[in-house]
Amino acid sequence: MSDSLYRANLLDHYEHPHHYGTLDHPTHQTEGANLSCGDELSISAVIKNGIIDQVAFTARACVVCTASASMLLEQVAGKPLAEATALTVNDITQNLGIELSPIRLKCALLPLETLKNLETVARPPAA
Amino acid sequence: MEELKPQFPFFTTHPTGVYLDSAATTQVPQAVIDATTTYLSNNHAAVGRGLYSESVDATAAVEAARGVVRDFLGAPATADVVFTSGATAALNALAWGLTETVQKGDTVVVTIDNHHANFLPWQRLVQQQGATLVTVPVGSDGKIDPSAWHAALQNRPRIVALTHASNVTGTLHPIKQLVAEARAAGALTVVDGAQAVAHTVVNLVELACDYYLFSAHKLYGPTGMGCIIGDHRQLSTLDPLLLGGGMIEQVTAESSSWTDSPARHEAGTPNTAGIAGLVAAIRWFSAHRETILRHEQTLIDYTIHALQSLPDLTLIGSTDPSERVGVFSFDLSGRHAHDVAQILAEKQICVRAGHHCAQPLHTQLKLSATTRVSVGAYTTTADIDAAVAALQRVCEIIPKR
Q1: How many residue pairs from chains A and B have C-beta atoms closer than 8 A?
Q2: What does the alpha-carbon distance between residue B185 and residue B106 come to, in Å, rounded to a whole number?
Q3: Chain A partners of B338 at a C-beta cutoff of 8 Å?
Q4: Labelling B339: which of A109, B157, B202, B218 has CA 20 to 30 A away?
Q5: Does A57 map to a domain?
């Protein structure tokens, strides 16, 4: 049997994730975790006039979660935040192109759920 | 093992499957299936109150089952066997029943390798009572940290809750010594035998803990069935967790009183089919115990060496087969356990991935999740070889982190 879940494109996103890293001056930031398996994800973004100008993530997560995050951020960069947060389960599974068991679906959805929780970064008052 | 494996219909249904998740649940031999089916087909009746012969027989079978459990675990004649829906229910019933034993300022001691069922009920108990939960760490070999253990006992804890064998590290603890030390410190002792009863010989007269418990489905029996074994007088003083039919002495509109153990802790209709299955499982296991334990010792040695042949694999716990049961959790150089288990599943190899309901231990190990291989009476060295080959494949597919 082939290692169907671990196709080359998923592994490529895992090994070389797009938008990986942190932003120097994010306007929005959030973290997410899948406590049952230990996946952890952090997303930061610069949002200007409702548009995702820059976005980046760091993760300590499985292949499915990391690849899902990489594909998602590639998809939403430059788009309106409202459009990004309106994405659904179907959009995520389409990105990945694989069938997922309920447990692995949680891995795949963590990035989108985290993105939907983006919060404004508190700025220190100007001196 | 070739001799016993044909007795398990699961492997007829899944001829190419490799089942390495016996620590989660064991497969069920035909003898247990037959006993459950026979009970439900021919002997099923409500127990306790019926005056017809079928009910009298079913009641007698339940009472006889207590003796089977007592004999199996070498329990003293004064011990009660309380039937529960499993080890989790048993631990919740004990923690509830022992609540008033713990007062503000007291301590309750748990070891960090307890699974959540032997951790959370105690955590809630101390929170309710204004007491403190003292968690004793384990070393990299899976053994209880001796200095932390003795320090915890110096506080004269009210209760010490131990696991006989860890479902993560596989460590088979020197439980008799630990119980003796805890009792000498004045503590009531609760020992979770869920991972031990199918992998070692338990003698409760020698062990001398206050309460021992286990579940049937890790002993080649059915799910939804477990037992608490403890002294009749002690169990008869514990406040029952569940209230209902069969456990009362008297009920009036204003107040009620409870009967003695074991009925005191068995509100509602008992799981008679489960009890029939448990008895059959104990009989089946006891008939083959010597062979199974010898086989598992060989298998443990084989598995340790086989896993260690993988350069990226770090085994959790001791590498001494005599200190272990056949439970092997490991990290594969940072590859996520879900990815590892998924690739093995695609090769029809059943293993467990995650924190195995033992988050505090994984936090101590600084691992979010591990992959776990565990063995049973039907496991063969070919199963282990298949798992190791698949793990090698995982290492080729997924880069290490």
Answers
A1: 57
A2: 13
A3: 37, 62, 64, 103-104, 107
A4: B218
A5: yes
Q: Is the pLDDT of residue B365 over 90?
A: no
Are the beta carbons of B370 and B330 closer than 8 angstroms? yes
Q: Nearest-CA distance from B368 to chain A in Å?
A: 5
- Domain of residue A41: give its range: 3-120
Q: Looking at the predicted complex, does its ipTM rise above 0.90? A: no
Cβ–Cβ of A61/B369 closer than 8 Å?
no
Give residue-wise pLDDT tens across range B330-361: 999 989 999 999 999 999 999 999 888 888 88
User: What residue in B sits closest to A62 (Cα-Cα)?
Assistant: B336
CB distance A37–B393 less than 8 Å? no
Q: What is the CATH number of the domain that holds A28?
A: 3.90.1010.10
Residues of B recognised as catalytic: 357
Question: Is the CB of residue B215 less than 8 Å from the CB of residue B86?
Answer: yes
pTM (two decimals): 0.93
Number of residues assigned to chain B = 401
Per-residue pLDDT band for B1 (boundaries 50, 70, 90) equals low
pLDDT band at B395 (very low <50, low <70, confident <90, very high): very high
Extended beta strands in chain A, E state:
28-34, 39-48, 51-60, 119-120
Triad A15, A20, A22: Cα angle to 5°: 150
Which pairing describes strands B132-136 and B159-163: parallel, antiparallel, or unpaired? unpaired
- DSSP string for residues in B81-142: EEEESSHHHHHHHHHHHTGGG--TT-EEEEETTS-GGGTHHHHHHHHHHT-EEEEEPB-TTS
The answer to the question of residue A126 being in a domain is no
The residue among B342, B356, B371 with the most chain A CBs within 10 A of its CB, best to mutate, is B342
Q: How many domains does chain A have?
A: 1
Domain-located, residue A125 = no
In DSSP terms, which residues pair with B132 in a beta bridge? Answer: B107
Residue A70 located in a structural domain: yes
pLDDT band at residue B152 under the 50/70/90 scheme = very high
Interchain contact, B339 vs A37, CB within 8 Å? no
Under a CB-based contact definition with an 8 Å cutoff, are residues B328 and B372 in contact?
yes
With a cut of 60, say whether residue A2 has pLDDT above it: no
Please give the Cα distance from B170 to B195 (Å, whole number): 8
